[in-house]
Every structure is written in structure tokens, then in C-alpha cells.
């Protein structure tokens, strides 16, 4: 199949999420095409992808419709991987291709930081926004059709944010106004929310010896894509992809329920000696505390403005108790103060406004002090 997707990011999330859904769509006869992966940071992932032309496996393990399942899915949607540092000319060749339709990315917050030293002539520029600006400039000069951009970073209004950064690079590089109009208005920037827990595989799994790219995913997956106002949306289909009018409620319920429970568990149970989310939920009293927190204090603050808040909380409970995950509280505790500010404090304030009193369990979590 033709190479229709340029993907910035070779990590396990995109391989087990976006690339898997492309494979699903291809298997269903949608002929989406293949993915060219660009690795921006040093590492062996590009070499591993090229060394496995027959694909890699994603182990899907956990609760699905109340039943514990495990299945291996073969992903063959990646045609090749390029390293930006040594193969930038090949990346730009893909940018010029008339068959290219989509750009997908998954960068960190640091990856979004622009570098004042970046220039359009660099091979490559350092920051991800500058790399994307250069790719789009190359395509514009080739006279190729505009692209659909799907940045999968966990930022609010991720596509709008990336669009602003790219147009800022174009202005700084003094590129023509016609390019800014083409990139900013004719290309389709789709705000979206990605939600799926992706983890490393168990080293003892039978597939691990022969598949160096083996990765694990939970059964739950959501890719909520915001419908662009006044524009037609031609996007491949998968059961995990949901086209919505506004992605903000989906972002809100994920941050307040799934991420909020993770951070609340750190506040309440980390100092008490619990090491993983699964250990917390295996303890009867601790599990009851978490369940009461979500259904009595978090869901009531969302139910009037987010569709399916209680249903999502039920799904989250199955996700948290997935026995195949070893989600360490010490990992969740990284950047704890920022997470408390975003994930817990707004729920606390909303609850007080709604009910005229502070939420008991959330108050207890917030009074637990800082994480050492």
C-alpha cells in the first residue's frame, strides 16, 4: 500500500495505538495506507522497526466487557522508519509525496519547546514544531495537497496549540504569507484526545524472544477527534475512534476521573507503603475508599456537564484493577504538585460550590502532604 502517514514518534504508545488502528482499518478493507515513522531522538527503535518488516505484536490484556481477556494483534502498518538526524532528506521526500495524507505525532512537553536557533535550512531543525513547519514548507513548495494533522500529545486543544507554534516558526523564518494561509487554513488540524494505557511486555512472554518491539495495551481505547467546524472530515474508521463536536468533555473526564484517581491514590496510600495501583485495589478498605471517592465526590461534579461520566468511572474501575498492569505509585508521583493542581484541586472546588461543603475523602487526600 502507499505511504500515506508520516509519524513523528517511534515510541510504544503510537505503535500500540495509532499504528494498530491503521492496521485494523486496513484489515477491514479501508486501504488507509502505510506509516513512515520518524525517530527524532537517538535510539534503536528505528533500526528495530526496519529489522522487523513483517511487523510486531501488541498484547491486548485486561478486562473487556467484564471478562478478563488476552490476545495478540499483529501490526504491519509501518512500512519503514527514518532517523531525522541522518535521514532528513528522506523525510522531506516523504513530505513531497502526492500520496501522503496524514501527519501524526506524540511528543513530550519538552518536545513542543521551540528553539530560537532553528532555521528552515537546518537538516533537521531541533524542535518538533520546527521539524513539522519544515515538512509543511517542503510540501507547499512541491504543490502537493494539504494534509490532515493529528497530534496525539496529552495537551488541551493539542492541534490548535501545535498549529500556533508551526505558524510562529513560519513567521520567524519569514516564509511567504501564502504558505501560512495554506498551512494554517487549508491543512486540517484536528484537536483530539488519546486514552489507552500502554506498557512494556513481560520478558517471559513467548513472543518476547522473537519480537523486540512487543508491547502491551489495555483493552480500553478511545481516540476522540473533534469535528472541524465547516469542514468535511475524511478519516479512517475504527471502533476506538469517536468523532465528536467538542473534545473538551472527554479531556475533562479523563483528567478528573482516571488521572485524578491515580494522583489521589498517591496522596492517600503512597506513604502508607503501597507500591502499585493494583496493591491499593487488592486491599478491601483501600479499594472501598477509592470507589467511594470516584462515585460520591468526583462523578457528581462532572455528571451535569460530561456525557457518560458514571459509565466512564465504571470502565476506569476495570482499567485500574487490570491484573496485567503494574502501575507504580512512585511513577505516578512524578511532578506530583502539578498533577494535584490539575487533577484534584478543580474537583475539590467544584464540589464545594455544588454542595456547600468540602468533599471528605478528597480533603483527606489533599491533607496528606507532599510526596517525598
What layout of secondary structure does this protein have?
Blueprint: E1 3-8, H1 12-16, H2 18-27, E2 34-39, H3 45-51, E3 56-64, E4 67-75, E5 78-83, H4 84-96, E6 102-105, H5 128-142, E7 148-151, H6 158-172, H7 177-186, E8 188-189, E9 192-195, E10 198-199, E11 215-217, E12 222-226, E13 241-244, H8 248-269, H9 277-282, H10 284-302, H11 309-320, H12 329-332, H13 336-343, H14 345-355, H15 360-366
Parallel strand pairs: 1-2, 1-6, 2-5, 3-11, 6-7, 7-8, 12-13
Antiparallel strand pairs: 3-4, 9-12, 10-11
Helix pairs in contact: 4-5, 5-6, 6-7, 8-10, 8-11, 8-13, 8-15, 10-11, 10-14
Descriptive notes:
- This protein has 15 helices and 13 strands.
- The chain is of the alpha/beta class.
- The chain has a six-stranded parallel β-sheet with strand order 5-2-1-6-7-8, sandwiched between helices. Strands 4-3-11-10 form a four-stranded mixed β-sheet.
- β3 and β4 form a beta hairpin.
- α5 (128-142) packs across α6 (158-172), α8 crosses α13 (336-343) and α10 packs across α14.
- It starts with a strand and ends in a 6-residue tail after the last helix.
Strand order across the largest sheet:
5-2-1-6-7-8
Integer average pLDDT: 94
Categorize the overall geometry: globular
Low-confidence stretches: none
Q: What kind of assembly state do the chains in view correspond to?
A: single chain
Fraction of residues in helix: 40-55%
> What's the order of the H and E elements?
EHHEHEEEHEHEHHEEEEEEHHHHHHHH
Tell me the structural class. alpha/beta
Report the major sheet.
Answer: 6 strands, parallel
Report the span from N to C terminus.
52 Å
**Over all CA atoms, what is the radius of gyration?**
22 Å
Strand proportion: 15-25%
| Discrete helix count | 15
Q: What is the tally of beta strands?
A: 13
Amino acid at each position: 500500500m502507499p505511504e500515506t502517514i508520516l509519524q513523528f514518534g517511534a515510541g510504544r504508545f503510537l505503535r500500540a495505538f495509532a499504528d494498530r488502528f491503521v492496521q485494523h482499518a486496513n484489515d477491514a478493507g479501508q486501504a488507509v495506507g502505510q506509516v513512515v515513522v520518524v525517530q527524532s531522538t537517538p535510539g534503536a527503535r528505528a533500526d528495530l522497526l526496519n529489522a522487523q518488516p513483517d511487523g510486531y505484536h501488541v498484547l491486548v490484556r485486561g478486562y473487556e466487557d467484564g471478562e478478563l481477556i488476552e490476545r495478540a494483534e499483529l501490526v504491519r502498518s509501518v512500512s519503514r522508519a527514518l532517523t531525522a538526524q541522518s535521514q532528513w532528506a528522506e523525510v522531506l521526500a516523504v513530505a513531497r509525496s502526492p500520496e501522503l495524507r496524514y501527519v501524526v505525532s506524540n511528543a513530550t512537553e519538552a518536545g513542543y519547546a521551540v528553539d530560537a536557533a532553528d532555521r528552515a535550512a537546518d537538516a533537521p531543525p531541533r524542535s518538533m514544531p520546527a521539524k513539522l513547519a519544515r515538512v509543511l514548507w517542503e510540501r507547499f513548495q512541491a504543490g502537493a495537497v494539504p494534509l490532515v494533522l493529528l497530534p496525539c500529545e496529552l495537551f488541551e486543544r493539542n492541534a490548535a496549540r501545535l498549529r500556533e507554534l508551526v505558524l510562529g516558526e513560519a513567521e520567524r523564518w519569514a516564509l511567504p504569507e501564502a504558505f501560512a494561509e495554506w498551512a494554517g487554513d487549508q491543512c486540517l488540524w484536528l484537536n483530539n484526545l488519546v486514552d489507552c494505557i500502554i506498557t512494556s511486555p513481560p520478558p517471559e512472554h513467548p513472543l518476547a524472544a522473537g519480537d523486540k518491539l512487543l508491547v502491551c495495551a489495555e483493552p480500553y481505547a478511545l481516540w476522540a477527534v473533534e469535528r472541524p467546524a465547516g469542514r468535511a472530515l475524511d478519516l479512517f474508521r475504527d471502533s476506538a475512534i469517536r468523532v465528536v463536536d467538542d473534545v473538551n468533555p472527554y479531556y475533562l473526564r479523563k483528567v478528573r476521573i482516571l488521572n485524578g484517581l491515580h494522583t489521589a491514590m498517591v496522596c492517600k496510600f503512597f506513604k502508607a507503603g503501597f507500591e502499585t495501583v493494583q496493591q491499593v485495589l487488592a486491599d478491601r478498605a483501600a479499594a472501598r475508599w477509592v470507589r467511594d471517592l470516584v462515585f460520591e465526590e468526583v462523578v457528581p461534579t462532572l455528571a451535569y456537564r460530561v456525557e457518560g461520566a458514571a459509565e466512564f468511572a465504571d470502565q476506569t474501575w476495570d482499567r485500574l484493577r487490570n491484573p496485567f498492569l503494574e502501575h507504580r505509585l512512585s511513577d505516578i508521583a512524578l511532578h506530583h504538585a502539578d498533577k494535584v493542581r490539575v487533577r484534584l484541586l478543580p474537583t475539590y472546588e467544584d464540589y464545594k460550590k455544588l454542595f456547600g461543603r468540602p468533599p471528605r475523602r478528597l480533603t483527606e487526600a489533599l491533607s496528606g502532604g507532599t510526596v517525598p
